[in-house]
């Protein structure tokens, strides 16, 4: 895939050069390397559909084979695309007009000339290649040249820039439209004011909004201060920009704001100012610009609505303990769930907070039987869910505390930690040129467009229906796990697992009135909804699990989505997407699952993951092979330790069997079996079992037969895993095979299938082999007494091609053959009712198998000939 990109903060010269490059190369994906200028974004919105320009997160970096960079020559100006420069096999072409830099982009081809605009360079190439330019394209190219040359007035403008504009005008460029999008050049005095405002500016986060404030004293009055402040806001990519400038005796205050942040006209109105919600000004007869800005800064604290509130990021519901709980019991709770502190609450009312340090000291002094209330911190600092992240940050720093209980109407509704605050503040804490690179790093992202493109209509409709019901009931519902992983990977997955923050059992039961069949499991707070269409959805309460000892079944308690996701196996399975109407399509990714998907790695969420549940080792191998991912280095080490330490051997036979069945239902289970062997898993699980090349060969054949002959093979839904199990034990001695079967607690029927597969293989080859022709009736007679799973194993395991061909002939064709005549026909023909009719029909089937009869008439004739009248009535 060829990608055409430019520098961060793309302007019209950048956009025009990208479009020209796509024409020059006969196509390519246009992608900004970061943010684009406001006027560029507005232009693209107005011309939606004419040019599609992607953002970095919409591009699959691993698929890029060719990179074309325009209007930039330094790696640090092209954002995420810079990392491709180190990737072998990438072809890089560069077109630019800027002066030399220390760190030029290493390229296979470059064209860099000192022109007023990069667009000029690209237009010249198009003209020399005789590539046609449409009027719309000519207008865009002219905009690019006009913007970077200050309407052909800057000193860097060359005659070639002017000639390019002349050529574009002749091709239909509409020069009258350029002023609508491009602010033309400043004179030297205006440039000095603009530069000074930028130089004096300071940035501040106020209630989550980025604010830029600046002051200036200038000897003379200059028109257009509002334009300078507008550019100041755009320069810093701020939400609000305010400047106080003294010109002569007066002080002029100009404010600009983004629509969703604040109304600056209302903000300045009490001081005598006015204007529009996003553009307002104020003129003061006298005053000190610095003092005025400081006063306005204090006012902004109250005027700006928080963009991200504590309610958006807090953990809720929150785990709390009763004031009367014993120190030793609170200590167990804290250890069990890994908390460093717990709120103390009585009927939802916050009474205090107890930390791990407090409990450690109390325990050391032998006070385990004392109540928590005796040692808790009373009246802890708390905040409202409506408070901004910035304010919570300030409180934590000033009070030197690591967590804040969240109260609403004096009721404990959540808790927020330093980690939560850091996550929320991260994107805005970056310099403006790096901020676009952080878009994928926060834990939420809207993926509704991906859902619309990749999900089947019935899936979208069902999720929307579930989300509406949850919202009506005041609940939050999310689609979670493997479904989200496969959605982002573009893989089909129709296993719908819903997690509900709130009472999932009530949610499940609410569907009964809609004609759905429901089943609930009170202990685990889970259940299933089966819709009238037959579609099934699994629903669970957001919960936290605790394992009392390795490989134990978990204890369950209700909790937040964050903790529900944390209990899962791998980061790529620990993502959720909101299906509520108000937050539809919001991806929740606390643990970097999407980044790991892009890196194609499997990573556990914590270091005791395999200790808590060793089946995650087997699931990890299954995912690794199915998705063709790599196991992350630390995860691999933990996995090996779990295997060598023998934890997997503690798994119950039932759980182990379940995991093996899932492996054998995969498309290519032999890959997973081979990987398990490489890691030493089979030896640990089943001493003496060491599947080798023969096992892998048999499994590959079974998979091939299942894939190619699936329509013709008999239904083996309940036993389809047994041919693979037979292959798994095929290279073991008999005692080892029986030990495996005992360990897995297989049924008597399943045991007989595996044993017969192994023990009777030689007999089958003897009976079905040989160079001579074998009558189909004989093949049928032998194999009709054999379970299809056994026969399938034999077909895969034998190295005698005639045996394999005859078994597959039976499984796909012969087993289905029956005579056209039935018992009633025999009676009509005069034969006595009784065992004789069955004998005749069996003989007739053999005749049809051997090709002696084909039509009904031939069957009647054959019966009358071979069973004379003495056998009739």
UniProtKB/TrEMBL annotation:
GO molecular function, one term: nucleotide binding
Keyword entries, A-Z: CBS domain, Magnesium, Metal-binding, Nucleotide-binding, Nucleotidyltransferase, RNA-binding, Transferase, tRNA processing, tRNA-binding
CBS domain residues: 314-372, 376-432
Cofactors that this protein relies on: Mg(2+)
SUPFAM superfamilies: CBS-domain pair, DHH phosphoesterases, Nucleotidyltransferase, Poly A polymerase C-terminal region-like
Keyword check for Acyltransferase: no
Database matches in InterPro entries: CBS_dom, CBS_dom_sf, DDH_dom, DHH_sf, NT_sf, PolA_pol_head_dom, PolyA_RNA-bd, tRNA_nt/polyA_polymerase
A biological process from GO: tRNA processing
PROSITE patterns: CBS
Record has tRNA-binding as a keyword: yes
Pfam family, one: CBS
Coiled-coil segments: none
PANTHER family, per the entry: A-ADDING TRNA NUCLEOTIDYLTRANSFERASE, POLYA POLYMERASE
Identification of the protein by name: CBS domain-containing protein
Organism this protein belongs to: Thermococcus litoralis
